[in-house]
Structure formats: structure tokens, C-alpha cells
Request: fold
Amino acid sequence: MLTHRIIPCLDIRAGRTVKGTHFKNLQDAGDPVELALRYCEQGADELTFLDITATQEARGTLTDLVRRVAEAVNIPFTVGGGIRTVRDVGRLLEAGADKVSVNSAAVRDPSLIDAIAAHFGSQCLVLAIDTQKVNGADRVFVSGGKQITERETTQWAAEAVERGVGEIMLTSIDHDGARNGFALDITGTLTARLSVPVIASGGAGRMEHFRDVFTIARAEAALAAGIFHFGDVALDTLKKWLHQNGVIVRL
Reply:
């Protein structure tokens, strides 16, 4: 049976963890190293670190901060933001990341996926997709959700899998920070079509939302931020509740 993963997400701006709604109105949520330690102690299965302004500011990821977080945790650690080359990936893996997440640069040059997968292997490559419904269609956005592209979400995910990504991290801009639940429709579409794990992101507000994305949309993992950062639900409490309600998780 599939063991589902719970993944806290640290969105980083200027060295601090932040959280917004629909990718806007960012609030400070704390020190990333302190939060990483807390989630590790509470039983997080993995941790994701996203330098959310790296692409907009045309710079690389904050390597020193990545190193500090990596030294503090003993669980798989994914890093994204500002990755544009194979060399960038190597630098982050050397700093302690277990996996890297690519987004905007891969949309603009899909051959980046081929190059990273060939050099480091699919097991360490996650494709982050920021998606939003536009005129009834699921469209891919880049540059921190600020720029719409011509790509359709499902088609882009399928192409990326063919090119070598090992996981898809799907964030619904419509649901992000709204606390009304994950985007079950597009998440379910991807899980039914793709041969790699789908990590659902955006919209967690109650424990039931995690159950639904696992049982209805069939996501393998769920990523969340605000619900954990601001103390709505403790991660260990969530995992116990899911276990009691028939969802297989690692306790």
C-alpha cells in the first residue's frame, strides 16, 4: 500500500519564511532553520525550500541558507528557485539538498530537464508547476505566478515526465493560501495520467483537505505551509488523524 507523504514548505524571501494568498500579500512566518527543525521533530516526511524571488531578481538560490537548513534536518530536502543550469543543481546538491525543483527556466527551455536528468538522475529532479484556470483552461504560470504562458498544465506535465522529471509538484494559484482545500480536479487529472508521483500544493486549511487530496485526487504527497507555520494544525497531530481515518502515513 502507498504511504502518503506530508511535506511542509518554506517559501523564502530575503532569508525569511513567508506565506501569502494567491501568491500575494506575503506575511513573515519565521526563521527557516527554526521551522525546519520543528517540522523535522514533528515527523515531516520531507521538507521543501523555495526561494520565491530568485527568478524575478535574476539570481541564484540562497546557498548559505540552504546549507544551514540541510545541516539542521535529517529528512529529504528539496530546494527550488532560480535554478537555470546544470551547474546550479550541482551547487545546491553540494550544499545539502537531496532534490531540486525547477520551474520557470524549464518552461522557457525544456531541454534543461533533459540535461539535469541525464547528469544527476530523475530521482533528484522535481518539476514545480504553478497553475491557474484561465477561461476554463488550466494554464502554466512562471516568475512566481506573475506571468502566464501558452502552456496547458496537463500537457506540460506529461512532456516533462517524458523528458525525465521524477516528480511533479503542482501548486494551484487559485487555491494558494485560501484554506479551502486542494485543487482536486487538476490534481486528479495529473495523477491519473502520469507515471510519476504528484505532490499537491495550495489550499490546505483543515485536516480533511489532506484526506481528500489523498483519497479523491490520489496524490502521493501533500505540501502545505500556512496551516503549519501559523499553528492551525500540528504536523504530528495531522498524521495521527489521517492514520485514524484510514490514510496510510508514516507515524
